[in-house]
Amino acid sequence: MAQELSEKEILKMEVEQLKKEVKNPRALISKTGKEIKDYVEAEAGNDPLLKGIPEDKNPFKEKGGCMIS
């Protein structure tokens, strides 16, 4: 699609996109960083990467071993 558009049309689209993005509300990183940190710390107890998955609920646990007779 980009090959079908002229350079002027592409630049016009970029300007329109930037006009939309400039209207997005902004927040200070000092505030949002603290909020993210608090959220991560609050949810750490539910994170399976930190506390592990119980053996009975692990869908990737091997069901049985290999038997050679």
TrEMBL record:
Residues 1-69 form the G protein gamma domain. GO terms for biological process: G protein-coupled receptor signaling pathway. Belongs to the G protein gamma family. SMART domains: G_gamma, GGL. One of its GO terms (cellular component) is heterotrimeric G-protein complex. It comes from Camelus dromedarius (Dromedary). This is Guanine nucleotide-binding protein subunit gamma. Guanine nucleotide-binding proteins (G proteins) are involved as a modulator or transducer in various transmembrane signaling systems. The beta and gamma chains are required for the GTPase activity, for replacement of GDP by GTP, and for G protein-effector interaction. GO terms for molecular function: G-protein beta-subunit binding. It is a lipid-anchor. G proteins are composed of 3 units; alpha, beta and gamma. Keywords: Cell membrane, Lipoprotein, Membrane, Methylation, Prenylation, Transducer. Residues 47-69 are annotated as: Disordered. It holds the Pfam family G-gamma. Residues 53-69 have a biased composition (Basic and acidic residues). The keyword Cell division does not apply. It comes from the Eukaryota. It is found in: Cell membrane.
